[in-house]
Amino acid sequence: MKNKRNLFLLALIVPIILLLAMTWKPLYTVNTGETITLETVPVDPRDILYGDYVSLQFAIEEFSKEDLDPALIKEFSKHDTGKLTVYAVLQLEEGDLYGLKTVTHKKPSDGLFLKGDMYYYGEHNIDENQMYFANFLPDRFYVAENTGMQLEDLSRKGQLLADIKVRGGFAVLENVRPK
Fold it and tell me: From which domain of life does this come (predicted)?
């Protein structure tokens, strides 16, 4: 009888521990991370099921060859297709706005950086005008019911800034505001 009670308690406690463990990294980032501001670029969202939200794409997620680490370009030549974990090294530009310094496939040992994924396909003839894309940040910011239209319009015009907490490459989107 005692053994069944212990198994029952274990069955109750394990899911609770798992749920709490899933919230640890975002909560730790919010409490101890550094707040940065990034510029967004226009996107037009529509989704009835998710409620009101602003769809976001960030300026640092689109970059040219000059922003790529030469070692990352060599990494492209090793594979035809796939997903590659990359890191966006950030630098303070003007005021409190951060921008992209470089994109590398090696985790930086210090400074502000974001961890993300980059997909690539086929042969890579590195063209000077070619643009590259990576996903570093959450792409949706949920807002209160019937309050998203102004932010959505600003998003389409590229006139939004996002306040983000960053710690160890992990990011939590805190706020979206007009430029």
Answer: Bacteria
Tell me, yes or no, whether 142 and 154 share the same domain. yes
4/19 Cα distance (integer angstroms):
24
pLDDT in tens, 49-90: 666 677 778 888 888 888 888 888 777 777 666 788 899 999
* Per-residue pLDDT tens digits for 6-58: 888 888 899 999 988 888 888 888 888 888 877 776 554 555 666 667 777 88
The whole-model pTM stands at 0.70
E strand map for 51-158: 53-55, 57-58, 62-64, 82-92, 98-104, 113-120, 131-133, 140-142
Q: What residues contact 113, with CB distance under 8 A and at least 6 apart?
A: 87, 88, 89, 90, 107, 166, 169
